[in-house]
Amino acid sequence: MPLFKSSKVIESQIDDFLDQVAEGALVFKEGVRAYLAGEQQDFESRLKAIASHESQADKLSKEVEAHLYSHSLIPDHRGDVLGLLENTDNIIDMAKSSLHQFAVEIPDIPTELHEGYLRLAEASCLAGESAVMAARAFFRDVDAVKDHLFKVHHYEREADQLSDGLKRRIFRMDLELARKTQLRYFAHNVETVSDQAEAVADRLAIYVIKRNI
Amino acid sequence: MDILVFLSSGLFLGWSLGANDAANVFGTAVGSRMVKFRTAAFLCSFFIVLGATISGSGAAHTLGQLGAVNALAGAFTVALAAALATFWMTRLKLPVSTSQAVVGAIIGWNLYASALTDTGSLTRIVLTWIACPLLSAFNAVILMLLLRWAIRRAKPHLLELDALTRYGLLIVGAFGSYSLGANNIANVMGIFLPENPFHDVHFWGLTFNATQQLFLLGSLAIGVGVVTYSQRVMRTVGGGLVRMSPVAALVVVLAHSITLFLFASARLEHWLASHGLPTFPLVPVSSSQAVIGAIIGIGLLRGGRGIRYNILGSISLGWLATPLVAGVMSFLLLFFVENVFDQEVYRTIRFRIDRQVVEEVERLHLPSEGLAALAGRDMSNPVRFRRRLSSATGLPENQLDLITELARLASIRVDPGVLALAGGRDWLTPGQWQALETLDGNSYTRSWAFHRDLGEASPEWRPLPDSKVNRYWNQDLRRKLEYLDRIFQTQPEE
Q1: Which of A43, B135, B189, B407 has the most Cβ atoms closer than 10 angstroms to its Cβ?
Q2: SS (H, E, C) B133-167
Q3: B284-311 burial, b for 16+ CB within 10 Å, e for fewer?
Q4: What is the pTM of this model?
Q5: Mutual angle of helices B397-407 and B382-393, in 10-degree steps
Q6: Contact of B37 with B254, CB cutoff 8 Å
Q7: Using the beta-carbon criterion (under 8 Å), do A73 and B32 form an inter-chain contact?
C-alpha cells in the first residue's frame, strides 16, 4: 500500500518537526536562564542547539511541503497544514533570533530584573509548547485542540502581563534612557515568542471549524 | 443496412453512457481532488470493460430493455434517440439516467408502432425521480453521522484518514464501474446479439465467445466515453452542487451503492424473506438519481446553506427532460428511418381470437361470451384490438389485458441447441433443461402455450404462489421465459 507508506513518512516528518519546535522552546527558556546566570558556556551551547533545531525544523517543513504537493495528499487541508507548519516554524525562528540578540548585544540586565525576565521566558516557552500540542492534536484529535488553544491563550496573556510589568519597572528605574530602551527591547523580544504561539492558535481555531464542517 | 451501421448507434449509446454515468462512480472522488481525473478515467474504463465482458455476457443479463423492440432498425433508432438525449444532457453537464433515456425512447417506439405501453414503466420513471433521491439522501445522512462518530472514536491521523478515504474511493469506484459495465452493457449491445457479426475464438484452451467479443466492443465504447467526455458531468457531481470534502465524497458513493443494493435487489429481498427477516421495499432506483440524492443529503446535514439550488434546479429539469426528449426524438427518427431509408422499424404483432384462445379463456374460468364476434380475424393494432375486445365483451381492465396476451400470435420453434450455442444453458436448472429437451422440435403459435407445456413438463417451469419469498423465483422465471421466447422466435409465416 504505497499511499499508507508515504503518509506514514509524512506523519513522522510532521511529528519530528513539532518535536524540534517544542525542544527549541525549551532550549530558549534554558538559554535565557543561562544568560541571566552568567553561565557563558552553557549559553553558547544553548545558542548552538536552538540554531540546529531551527534549521532541522526548516528542513522538515520543506520536505513535508514537497511531499504533500508531489503526492497530492490531503487536498482539502493541504493549504491549512502548510500554513500551520509555517506559523509554527515562526515560533522557533523567533526564539532563535531572540536568543541570538542576547549574544549580539550582551545586554547588562540588573539583577533585580532577572526574576522578571526568567518568568517571562517561561511563560513564552509554555505558550510555544502548548501551541505545539494544539498543532499535534489537529492531526489526530480535533476535539482536543480546543483544550490546548485555551492554554496557549492563557500563557500568552500571562506573558503579556509579565512583559508589561517588566517594562514599567525598567522605566521607573534610575538608568540611562538608552539602557532602558535596550532592556525594554529585550523584554519585547522574549515576549514575541508567545505572540507567535498565539498566531498559531488563532489559525488553528479556524482550521478546526473547517475540519468539522 | 449493414450490421455495422446498426452497431454504430449502440456504440454511440455506449459512448454517451460512459460520458454521463462515470460521474456517478468517480465524480465525487475527482471533484474532491482525491483522485486525478486521469486515474479515475483509466480505472473506470478498465473495470467497465471487465464487468461487461465477464459478468455482462451471462444469459441472465443479456435481455436488456431494448429487447422489447422487435426489429433491428427500430432498435437502432431507439438506441440512437436515447444516445442523443443523453449526449445533449452531458453537453449541459447534467447527470441523467441513461436507462430512463432508453425507456423514454422505447415509449416513443411504442407510440410509433402503436404497441401497448407498459403503464408501469411511466410510474417507475416518476418514482425513481422522487423515492430514489430521498432514500439515498437519508442513507447518506445516516452514513455520514456514523462515519463522523467512528472517526471521532478511532482518531486516525489526518494523513491516515486521507489514505484510507483515497483507497475507499478507489475501491468503491472500481466496484461501481464493474457493476456499471455489467448492468448496462445489455442496453448498449444486447439488441445486436441476434445479428452478432463475431465468432467464438479459442486460444490456450479458453473460449472467448462471440457475445463477449460484442460486449467487449460495447464496453470499449463506454470506456472511450469515460476518457473523452466524462469530465464535464464529473465536475457537476463532484463539486458543482455542494462542495465536497473527501470523507463526504466517500459517503456519497457508499450511500449510492447501498441505496441500489437495499432497495433494488430482488435477490436480497428473497434472502431476507426466506430467513424470516423483514424486507426493504423494492423501488425503482437509478445510479444518477441516487448520487444526486446522497449529495443533497450531505448538503442538508450541513444546514443546507452550501447547496447551489440553481444547479439542483437544472439537474431536476434534466431528469424531466431526458425521457421526454428521448421519446419525442425516437418517434421522429423512427418516422424518418422508416420512410426515408425504407427500413422495417417494428415487426407487426398480430392478434387473433381462435379456438385455442377461447378454450384457454374457458379453462381460466373467464367469461368467453362475445369473443366469438371477434373470431377468425387477425388484427395488427393492439390498441384497436383491445378497444374492440372491450366493446365486445365489456370485461374489466385486468381481464382485457389477460385475453389480449392470450390472443397475441407468436412464432416459436423449440431448439435447445440454439440456446446452448448462445450460452444460455448455464442459466437453467438441470430440471428446466430436461423439460426443455422434451419439447425439442415443437412449434407454437402462442408463447403462453409454450410456457404451459414447459410447466407441464417440469414443476421447475411453474411460477410459485405470489409472496415475498417467491417473488425472486417468479421474476427469474419470467425473465427466463422471455429469453426463451426471444431466442426461439422464428419468422412468422404470412
Answers
A1: B189
A2: HHHHHHHHHHHHHHHHHHHHHHCCCHHHHHHHHHH
A3: bbbbbbbbbbbbbbbbbbeeeeebeeee
A4: 0.85
A5: 120
A6: no
A7: no
B490 class by beta-carbon count within 10 Å (0-12 exposed, 13-18 middle, 19+ buried):
exposed
Coil, strand or helix at B235? helix
Q: Integer distance in angstroms from the first to the last C-alpha of chain A?
A: 29
ipTM computed for the complex:
0.89
Q: Can you read off the three cell numbers belonging to residue B53?
A: 465482458
Helix (H, G, I), strand (E, B) or coil at B1: coil
Name the minimum distance, in Å, from the CA of A1 to any CA of chain B: 9
Locate B365 and state its grid cell.
Answer: 374460468
Domains of chain A: 2-212 (1.20.58.220)
- pLDDT > 70: percent of chain B: 96
pLDDT in tens, B361-384: 888 888 888 888 888 778 888 888
Task: Determine whether the interchain pair B152/A143 forms a contact, defined as Cβ–Cβ distance below 8 Å.
Answer: yes
What is the rounded CA–CA span in Å between residue A103 and residue A208? 39
Q: Which of A95-104, B26-35, B199-208 has the lowest mean pLDDT?
A: B199-208
Largest CA distance in chain B: 81
- Is A7 within 8 Å of B32 when comparing Cβ atoms? no
Left (φ > 0), alpha (ψ -120 to 50) or beta: where does B448 sit? alpha
- Residue in B152, B158, B167 closest to A139 by CB: B158
**What type of residue sits at position B236?**
T
Neighbours of B29 (CB within 10 A): 32
Q: Which three cell numbers, joined as nine digits, stand for A84?
A: 500551520
Q: What is the mean pLDDT of chain A?
A: 94
Do residues B326 and B168 lie in contact, with contact meaning Cβ atoms separated by under 8 Å?
A: no
